[in-house]
Amino acid sequence: xxxxxxxxxxxxxxxxxxxxxYAGVVKANDPIAFAGQIANYQLLPYAWNYLVAxxxxxxxxxxxxLLLLNKRVRPAVLVLFVLNLSFMLVLTSAIVRGLDIDxxxxxxxxxxxxxxxxxxxxxxxxxxxxxxTWMLRSRQHPPERADGD
Amino acid sequence: MSKPRLxxxxxxxxxxxxxxxxxxxxxxxSLNFQLVMKAFTGKTVVPVKGNxxxxxxxxxxxxxxxxxxxxxxxxxxxxxxxxxxLVDARNLDAYRSGHLAGAVSxxxxxxxxxxxxxxxxxxxxRLLIVYCSGFGCPDSFDLGVRLLAAGYRQVRVFEGGFxxxxxxxxxLEEGLK
Lengths: 149, 177
Known about the structure:
Chain A is mainly alpha-helical. Chain A has one domain (2-140). Helix content of chain A is 74%, strand content 0%. Chain A contains five helices and no strands. Chain A has helices spanning 2-29, 31-39, 46-69, 73-96, 116-140. In chain A, helix 1 packs across helix 5 (116-140), helix 3 runs antiparallel to helix 4 (73-96) and helix 4 packs antiparallel against helix 5. In chain B, strand 5 (128-131), helix 7 (139-149) and strand 6 form a beta-alpha-beta unit.
């Protein structure tokens, strides 16, 4: 049972690492297009879209790298959990307001688009992965231990 | 009644999460400093209000633009009177069924095929105002970025687009130009 838990932990950790490193790299490569997609949600003042577009990709990237390296896993999972929760709230507000827009979740300049409803379900899946990674990490490395990040 | 306190381990995790956020903010701002500063200072190539661009003062009022700046409905009249060109980024069917009076069509989906012809007809110094189907539509912004990359120096995006113009009772035209 413990072996199964370890396998699931590493699989979910690596899956999350791949997802967020990819998301971070493609957004960091095109901050202007990403800012345009954030602007479509009509939630932030104009210039703040650029501040978010300039910094958020690096947060995803650094968290993804920590997950990949299996270092500081819980701080990275905590940040991604809050980030993902924010994405879900923003997507919900877009759905409630009837905005028909690409979610801007991954490549900002891609021809392929994802509806907010589809993105919301996908984010819910990420939340489950994040929660299971946190719980399995806590079981294997209790936070009270010196190396128990 | 005692307040619930976080364990030292949980406090450490929170602190490390905050450090991660601060690090990302620092790196992101360092790598995109100019872009963010231009967005916050509103540096554009469009005329400063009350100081229209003329041949004489162009150099003083025009700076390089990297991304299209939004324009509000109530600013349009002044810009159109100064010679701005409306550019419709929607598909040809939408344009044919109704567009802003005076607008030319350059659908985002056909930009690769039609940009050369557009550039032959429209000088790069002309102020362009790009629009599409309103606030939920990203095509006008994307087309604005493409036009800037093609060498146009003054590109703005009318985010309210066709619906806001129509709802304000502004003149519309039908058919192809």
